[in-house]
Amino acid sequence: MAANPESTPNSTGNAPFPDGVIAVEQLAELLGAPGVVILDCRHDLAQAGWGAQQYRLGHIPGAIFADLDHDLAGARNGANGRHPLPSPEAFAARLRDWGLGPSSRVVVYDASQGAYAARAWWMLRWVGHPWVAVLDGGWQAWLAAGLGISDQTPKPRQGDLRVGPSRQVIAGVDAVLEIAKSAPAPGHGGTLLLDARAPDRFEGRNETVDPVAGHIPGAVNRFWKQNLDERGYFKPPQQLRDEYAVLLQERTPGQVIVQCGSGVTACHDILALHLAGLQGAALYPGSWSEWIADPARPIARGA
């Protein structure tokens, strides 16, 4: 884990706040420290309300529940995907409700190896807040460390966070359409579209979430779970860098657009790129669920 050179030391005078991911031991030292906010992002696509239920049963002490469908997504209109982004102002208002200010240090976690916490990480940086890290290993790592849980819901004071310069890039459907028009995949100098879904969904063999199977023509599959080791922790930065270099070839990170089913697990790939020192990839927020809303858009199947 690399230290963010812009970050501020914690209240005990230790090393700067981690950039990207944080270990359970580091979070344990920060519990109860001024300005530390913990967001519980547990979710299950197949069970509405599962995350909130699990939160009520027990969570990391001081954590606030962040619901993917309601807090980390905006209103759906049938054409903008399953988890469209809210406006930056609306998200910043929610963050203020959770007590966030400009110097808050935020830790986000889930029980799905970072699949949902990475979305919160991305969104906080999207509205200009850099002091955010995903708990490596998530809820399971916290339980394994025996660090204690709570069923108390905190009542934070209103924060004063404002939208700042974004630290993330967004690509719209028109940019993705240009890639699809040039399929098969463009040469080394073209924009690379990475699809973070599981291979069976990418290939159109086993679509379990969306009504249409397949992928965007020209996309290359990088399943988000490939960012993790066998224990469910992020791979070392150099290993991630080597693996992504095979995909990027001669491209810069600024020539990469990442998507998934609804702009959620794509953030996991963007976080992995960040950890690898390859910052600058764009997110296509609508992703596959927005793409298929227009039957005129082309669809590919197979590997």
Structure report:
This protein has 303 residues and is of the alpha/beta class. It is built from ten helices and ten strands. It has helices at residues 24-30, 50-57, 88-97, 117-126, 138-144, 173-181, 199-202, 237-248, 266-275, 287-291; strands spanning 20-22, 36-40, 64-65, 105-109, 132-135, 169-170, 192-195, 219-221, 256-259, 282-283. The strands form two sheets. Strands 1-5-4-2-3 form a five-stranded parallel β-sheet. The chain has a five-stranded parallel β-sheet with strand order 6-10-9-7-8, with helices on both faces. Helix 2 (50-57) links the parallel strand 2 (36-40) and strand 3 (64-65). The longest helix has 12 residues, at 237-248. It is globular and about 50 Å long. The chain starts with 19 loop residues before the first strand and ends in a 12-residue tail after the last helix.
What's this entry about, in short?
The chain has 303 residues and is of the alpha/beta class. Helices cover 27% and strands 11% of the residues.
Pick out its properties:
303 residues, alpha/beta, Oxidized Rhodanese, domain 1, 2 domains, five-stranded parallel sheet, disordered N terminus
**Radius of gyration (Å):** 19 Å
Q: Mean of the pLDDT scores?
A: 93
Taken in chain order, the helices and strands follow as EHEHEHEHEHEHEHEHEHEH
Please give the largest β-sheet.
Answer: 5 strands, parallel
- Unreliable sequence segments: 1-14
Number of domains: 2
Tally the helices: what do you get?
10
Cα distance spanning the termini: 33 Å
| Structural shape | globular
Query: Based on DSSP secondary structure assignment, what is the total number of beta strands?
Result: 10
Task: Write down the CATH class of the largest domain.
Answer: Alpha Beta
Strand order of the largest sheet: 1-5-4-2-3
Q: What is the beta-strand fraction?
A: 5-15%
The CATH topology of the largest domain: Oxidized Rhodanese, domain 1
CATH level-4 homologous superfamily of the largest domain: Rhodanese-like domain
